[in-house]
């Protein structure tokens, strides 16, 4: 285990995170994302055409492409938020549009949209990550087991039932919340309002929410737009540490310099896939110029 706390180097909170696809309950052969010949258009004209790609558990994949090239649309197809006109999209082995295990996915939006109108504290944001895990689902399905629990450990079992009925977080849930805050280096900001944070801190709080939800896929849509350069570096260090723990990272990124530095694999899109492969091969290929047009000369300086 080598997770990092961005601020202090602590590895708290990551000990129980699955490290392999098999540990995570996913058959090793089951891709996290699987698109087969997917075509989609909002109108009769496709904005994503004949895209086939798979993302395996533990990968760090960046999707790049010019403005309007279909990146967000592709992400929505991957997550089952849009249905392909042609082809098939699968998520953790299920049809993406029928996938109902949402807590497995942590979504971090552009910070501009994440920032709006949330006068709640960081801890409250992170706590939301636990909501799918609380409630009746946590109680034993078998009544006999519940009765046995009441006999053997009446106080603990009664408290579990009360928590389930009220949807309250248990002390274990709060420990997960605190661990997630520590992992992203935000323990000291737990009681700060989310509106009173810098862009980079806010994005780390949203990552903590995903960790508290025990997500094993992180989907990030241009997460560092508007975040200052130093915080951007810390943010990517955090993503790398989480990926090293086995979390699959799927990143839409505008900043090609960051992609080249951090992602293992690049999918370069402009309606169709222009390139899909290891980042160093992308750097050496002509995919960038073809997808972005003749003006795209420098990886670090391209305005996607
Ligand atoms: N809800 C929608 N209804 C109709 N057209 C849409 C919708 N969303 C996106 N489009 C169009 O689909 C195309 C692809 O858009 P998309 O947002 O997927 O691209 P993108 O690569 O994410 O762009 P950007 O980098 O600017 O965020 C664009 O031409 C866009 O105008």
Automatic annotation (TrEMBL):
<dbReference type="InterPro" id="IPR027417">
    <property type="entry name" value="P-loop_NTPase"/>
</dbReference>
<dbReference type="InterPro" id="IPR003593">
    <property type="entry name" value="AAA+_ATPase"/>
</dbReference>
<feature type="region of interest" description="Disordered">
    <location>
        <begin position="1"/>
        <end position="28"/>
    </location>
</feature>
<protein>
    <submittedName>
        <fullName>Metal ABC transporter ATP-binding protein</fullName>
    </submittedName>
</protein>
<comment type="similarity">
    <text>Belongs to the ABC transporter superfamily.</text>
</comment>
<dbReference type="Pfam" id="PF00005">
    <property type="entry name" value="ABC_tran"/>
</dbReference>
<keyword id="KW-0547">Nucleotide-binding</keyword>
<feature type="domain" description="ABC transporter">
    <location>
        <begin position="33"/>
        <end position="296"/>
    </location>
</feature>
<dbReference type="InterPro" id="IPR003439">
    <property type="entry name" value="ABC_transporter-like_ATP-bd"/>
</dbReference>
<keyword id="KW-0067">ATP-binding</keyword>
<dbReference type="GO" id="GO:0005524">
    <property type="term" value="F:ATP binding"/>
</dbReference>
<dbReference type="GO" id="GO:0016887">
    <property type="term" value="F:ATP hydrolysis activity"/>
</dbReference>
<keyword id="KW-0813">Transport</keyword>
<dbReference type="InterPro" id="IPR017871">
    <property type="entry name" value="ABC_transporter-like_CS"/>
</dbReference>
<dbReference type="InterPro" id="IPR050153">
    <property type="entry name" value="Metal_Ion_Import_ABC"/>
</dbReference>
């Amino acid at each position: 285990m080598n997770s990092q706390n961005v601020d202090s180097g602590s590895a708290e909170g990551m000990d129980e995170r699955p490290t392999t696809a098999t540990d995570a309950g996913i058959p090793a052969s089951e891709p996290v994302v699987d698109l087969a010949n997917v075509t989609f258009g909002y109108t009769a004209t496709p904005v994503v055409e004949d895209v086939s790609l798979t993302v395996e558990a533990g990968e760090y994949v960046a999707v790049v492409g010019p403005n309007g090239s279909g990146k967000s649309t592709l992400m929505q197809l991957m997550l089952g938020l849009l249905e392909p006109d042609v082809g098939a999209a699968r998520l953790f082995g299920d049809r993406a549009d029928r996938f109902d295990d949402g807590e497995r996915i942590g979504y971090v939006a552009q910070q501009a949209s994440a920032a709006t109108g949330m006068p709640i504290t960081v801890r409250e944001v992170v706590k939301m990550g636990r909501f799918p895990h609380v409630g009746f689902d946590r109680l034993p399905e078998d009544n006999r087991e519940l009765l046995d629990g009441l006999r053997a450990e009446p106080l603990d079992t009664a408290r579990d039932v009360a928590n389930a009925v009220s949807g309250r977080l248990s002390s274990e849930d709060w420990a997960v919340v605190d661990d997630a805050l520590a992992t992203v280096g935000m323990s000291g900001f737990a009681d700060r309002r989310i509106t009173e944070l810098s862009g980079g801190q806010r994005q780390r709080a949203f990552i903590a929410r995903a960790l508290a939800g025990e997500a094993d896929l992180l989907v990030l849509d241009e997460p560092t737009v508007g975040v200052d350069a130093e915080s951007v570096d810390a943010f990517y260090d955090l993503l790398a540490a989480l990926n090293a723990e086995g979390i699959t990272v799927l990143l839409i990124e505008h900043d090609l310099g960051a992609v080249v530095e951090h992602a293992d694999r690049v999918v370069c899109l402009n309606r169709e896939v222009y390139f899909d492969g290891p980042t160093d091969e992308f750097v050496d290929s002509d995919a960038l110029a073809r997808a972005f047009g003749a003006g795209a000369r420098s990886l670090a300086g391209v305005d996607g």
